[in-house]
Specification:
Layout: E1 5-8, E2 18-21, H1 28-39, E3 43-45, H2 51-56, E4 61-67, H3 72-91, E5 99-105, H4 110-115, E6 123-129, E7 135-139, H5 148-158, E8 164-165, H6 170-175, E9 181-186, H7 191-207, E10 212-217, H8 222-227, E11 235-239, E12 253-255, H9 263-276
Helix pairs in contact: 3-5, 5-7, 7-9
């Protein structure tokens, strides 16, 4: 106690009445969020009847919250988990069903949780769908914070990506490459970086291999970011590729996104740069727009 249940459906019309129990704290904001989630769910409820068909038999990846209603940490996690599901759907509009958020009530379905080797609550588990229908199961680190920002960062790292992670071999991979590279310099704790990550992923799809995209963790590889003169996050640098086998400068050309997460704006900016540099035009997959002349000013 207290226990809050939302009853939905009309028995007079012989419809099965649905019950939604609040998992979380009884504040005004969370009660309103609970009602909104019940009316427009972003977290799918899994039971022994549908778990295998949906998680193991479907074509999607799942991030599942195994919880118990009486568990204090579970109640604290629940609103964060629902907020993460809504945020993920809003920032991954190109393929919102690539990852599904779901939950299992381990008090009601203890046999299912025992079968899945859930022995503590809450347990967050990522069921990643691989090629050939195989499932790769990963547990969310127990020593990580269970907030929206941290969970989003972990999921982004776990999801399949067209953006290559650049490690200590930045010079050989990027600076000595004859191919153009667009690099996202980020920090794991940076909320703007987390919000920008889906945009950068979508940009990789639009460029369709004509420009290679990579990202560098400036907390882990701080010396690379210092040499590239990175002074805020995320910062995007463009490298055109080597000429006459001469290594490129570490700094690269900064692509100012002005905080936008609009892929078309960034793609258009890149197209204009290519045009004004007199280089072969890059084709933007799925986009069609006009280019304009740009004037570059250098103040010394």
């Amino acid at each position: 106690y207290p226990r809050t249940i939302l009853y939905m459906g009309d028995d007079s019309q012989q419809q099965k009445q649905q019950q939604h129990s609040l998992i979380g704290f009884h504040t005004v904001d969370q009660l309103l969020e609970f009602i909104s989630e019940a009316l427009n769910p972003t977290v799918q409820v899994l039971t022994p009847d549908n778990f295998d068909d949906i998680v193991y038999g479907g074509g999607q990846s799942f991030f599942v919250d195994f919880f118990a209603p009486w568990c204090g940490p579970c109640q604290k996690l629940a609103p964060e988990f629902r907020q993460l599901a809504r945020q993920w759907a809003s920032t991954h509009t190109e393929d919102p069903n690539q990852l599904v958020f779901a939950s299992v009530d381990c008090e009601q379905y203890s046999n299912l949780c025992n079968r899945e080797n859930v022995n503590s609550f809450p347990a967050l588990r990522f069921y990643r769908k691989l090629q050939g229908g195989k499932i790769d199961v990963n547990n969310y680190p127990s020593n990580w914070w269970r907030n929206v920002q941290t969970m989003s960062h972990w999921l982004t790292e776990m999801m399949p990506s067209l953006v290559q992670k650049i490690a200590g071999d930045f010079a050989n991979t990027v600076l000595d490459s004859s191919e153009p590279w667009l690099i996202d310099f980020y920090a794991p704790w940076c909320s703007h970086c987390i919000q920008f990550a889906p945009t950068f992923e979508r940009l990789a799809q639009v460029l369709n291999g004509q420009v290679r995209l990579g990202k560098i963790d400036c907390e882990r590889f701080n010396w690379i970011c210092e040499n590239a003169q990175i002074n805020y996050f995320p910062q995007i640098l463009l490298y055109f590729g080597t000429k006459n086998y001469k290594r490129q400068e570490t700094r690269g050309m900064e692509i100012s996104t002005d905080g936008t997460t609009n892929v078309e704006i960034i793609a258009k900016l890149l197209g204009n740069i290519w045009r004004n540099m007199g280089m072969d035009m890059i084709k933007m997959k799925g986009m069609n727009f006009n280019y304009y002349n740009l004037i570059f000013l250098c103040f010394i």
